[in-house]
């Protein structure tokens, strides 16, 4: 749902040369304002594009803040008797979990701030401290809850934005569809977020590359390193894709819910590996907001996550922090 972005935070590094064409299937297209690429092995040569496009269309009808008729848009505009679906409920419950775990660094109620800064569907506003303070009064996931499958707000101005992790969730949804169809070897990539399962026909794991965090709004960056995945998801959040420069200052789209301003720290890129892409995506966003030192403590506490943090030192050089198991997944040069 990261609209008007060309996210290539992860680049698939696999070659179809030598594959048996009757088994290798490729489905690709556009969804959520970005591209998707799904490759799978199927001896029956089934082509699932229509089904996949239908799933992603229905997904947008639930979670897209760019669609005024979506469920989340109806919630944000306080329409009555909104019927929630499983997509929305799953995202809401996961948001609550990650919000608590990250001590509020991940908070989908930043939507009014995202709009004010010009990173959402709304028009950018003139930023003044008084304006930020007024919006912060209705930012906080503690101000909204799910009760008997209905949303209850403490303040009607509270709005939700699941864009920070909905794309990762859509990867899980498509992966579940492929599992249901009996596909045992595949890689799903939507807007740069990835889940891979099984092996390629040559018996090797699917390879994914993580790119260098170079400011670049339109095109892919050179690969920094690559990893093997099987039964795991990876999502990357960075400050080098969606940003603007004003009066010589760079402002990234990751908003700190506590200050109301774009997060300012030396983290450039955060890649998180877990069993579910919704988990990877949400935590990558939260970690990028919390900053390096808090991120290290957080990752030591949450062993279910593996991560690569890329940050800049005082001289502007790349530095890296990797969790132990992340290193094991790296492909040696």
Walk me through the structure.
It is a single chain. The chain has 9 helices and 15 strands. The protein has 333 residues and is an alpha+beta fold. The chain has an 8-stranded antiparallel beta sheet with strand order 2-3-6-7-10-13-14-15. A hairpin with a 2-residue loop joins strand 2 (24-31) and strand 3. The relative contact order is 0.15.
Low-confidence spans: pLDDT under 50, at least 5 residues?
1-22
Q: What does the largest sheet look like?
A: 8 strands, antiparallel
Q: Structural class, from helix and strand content?
A: alpha+beta
Please give the count of helices: 9
Query: In which order are the strands of the major sheet placed?
Result: 2-3-6-7-10-13-14-15
Taken from the alpha-carbon principal axes, the silhouette is globular
How much helix, percentage-wise, in residues? 25-40%
Distance between the termini: 34 Å
Helix and strand layout, with pairings?
Blueprint lengths: L9 E3 L11 E8 L2 E8 L7 H15 L7 H6 L9 H16 L9 H6 L12 H8 L7 E4 L2 E4 L9 H18 L5 E5 L2 E5 L8 E6 L11 E7 L2 E7 L4 E4 L2 E4 L14 E8 L2 H14 L1 H10 L4 E7 L5 E5 L1 H6 L4
Short précis:
The protein is an alpha+beta fold and 333 residues long. The protein contains 9 helices and 15 strands.
Q: What features would you highlight for this structure?
A:
eight-stranded antiparallel β-sheet; 9 helices; three-stranded antiparallel β-sheet
